[in-house]
Amino acid sequence: MKGSVLIVDDDRTFRFAMGKALRRLNFAVEEAESAEAALSPLARSTPPDVVLLDLRMSGMGGLGLLRQRVTARSRFVVLTGHGTVQAAVEAMKLGAFSFLEKPVDAEVLARSWSMHRVGNSLSRLARTAQRYAEREGKEVTIAVHGGDLSVSK
User: What percent of the chain has pLDDT over 90?
Assistant: First the structure.
């Protein structure tokens, strides 16, 4: 499995189609028809890696779920057919990893998550190397920029 995805959308057809496409790409997929229904899977000790979150739903809605921030370990990708700049800014301030307008392609999403995981791995490596250098009394700056690892003295 490439990872786990929770699709939170009140549109059953969208959940079915996106779920089918992501399963074909070897993701474990779970679905929730509302933000309220998503609270339980997000509260588990192993929450999903990624949450595809519709912005406009009845009840709590996507922004309401982001405000709850049940888990900091899941990446929230906000999807909407009615995007506004204000909603995108608010979603990002609330911790959304990305804000995309529907329709969205499952393969494009999967590639962006893979690149993000590579970037996270490089960032962890850079932090570990930086701590080691500091412990050894070396003055070195190690950083990650756009997937590239750089070292300077």
Answer: 25
From CA 67, how far away is CA 15, in angstroms rounded?
Answer: 22
d(CA 127, CA 61): 36
Q: Return the structure tokens found at 72.
A: 């900091």
| CA–CA distance, 11 with 8 (Å, rounded to integer) | 9
- Among residues 121, 111, 127, 128, which one has the least CA distance to residue 147? 121
pLDDT at residue 113, rounded to an integer: 64
Is the CB of residue 37 less than 8 Å from the CB of residue 125?
no
Tokens 């406009």, located at residue:
56
The separation between CA 9 and the C-alpha centre of its own chain, rounded to angstroms, equals 15
Which residues lie closer than 8 Å to 98 by C-beta, 6 or more apart?
Answer: 75, 77, 78, 112
Q: Which tens digit of pLDDT belongs to each residue from 37-59?
A: 999 999 998 999 889 999 888 88
